[in-house]
């Protein structure tokens, strides 16, 4: 659960909030990777729990990127037209990450009850690729957009935090706010 107060949210610059979301998503992916490693080492979660953990991470990352594509990027492009190429590159990354998440979900859906080495190689390769693209994407996005977002004042984002700035499901405003 997010413990920040409403007043604290309004005082935190938008770029700083983006960094907090990225930290949270990185931690979620680390937890998923640990769960996958534990499963294949024979001491982890059963496949159904691992799939649920993957679904939770993938849903959070997709919500974040959908919110950026639908809300943040158009607002940034309007105020900073020189960043349109950067935003286009970030949208391309979002598509690649969606594809990688789909591959990982498919692999985890077919996990055997007992771990096997062939599946372990495939799953670890897929989660490694997802991690590499996500980390590179986040670093690029932070380098290009944090200061821009910190300079922006979008009252509707402060009053009703959009999907790209949410860090847990309890904050989720529903699809209409994305």
Give an overview of the whole structure:
- This protein has helices at about 5-10, 15-40, 45-80, 85-110, 115-150, 155-160.
- It is an all-alpha fold and about 180 residues long.
- The protein has a single domain, classed as Four Helix Bundle (Hemerythrin (Met), subunit A) (Up-down Bundle).
- Helix 3 runs antiparallel to helix 4 (about 85-110).
- The longest helix is centred in the last third of the chain and has 35 residues, at about 115-150.
- It is elongated.
- It comes from Nonomuraea diastatica.
- Pfam families: Hemerythrin.
- InterPro entries: Dimeric_xanthone_biosynth, Hemerythrin-like.
Main traits of this protein?
74% helix; mainly alpha; Four Helix Bundle (Hemerythrin (Met), subunit A); Dimeric_xanthone_biosynth; disordered N terminus; Hemerythrin-like; disordered C terminus; Hemerythrin domain-containing protein; 178 residues
Summarize the model shown.
The protein is mainly alpha-helical and 178 residues long. The protein is 74% helix and 0% strand.
Q: Mind sketching the topology for me?
A:
Layout: H1 6-11, H2 14-40, H3 47-79, H4 84-109, H5 117-151, H6 155-159
Helix pairs in contact: 2-3, 2-5, 3-4, 4-5
Pfam families: Hemerythrin (PF01814)
Domain Hemerythrin-like: 18-147
Organism: Nonomuraea diastatica
Described by strand count, sense and barrel closure, the largest sheet is: none
Low-confidence stretches are 1-11, 172-178
Radius of gyration: 17 Å
Distance between the termini: 20 Å
Strand content: under 5%
- The tally of strands reads 0
- CATH class type: Mainly Alpha
Q: Please bin the fraction of helical residues.
A: over 70%
Query: Based on helices, strands and strand pairing, what is the structural class?
Result: mainly alpha
CATH topology category name: Four Helix Bundle (Hemerythrin (Met), subunit A)
Total number of helical segments?
A: 6
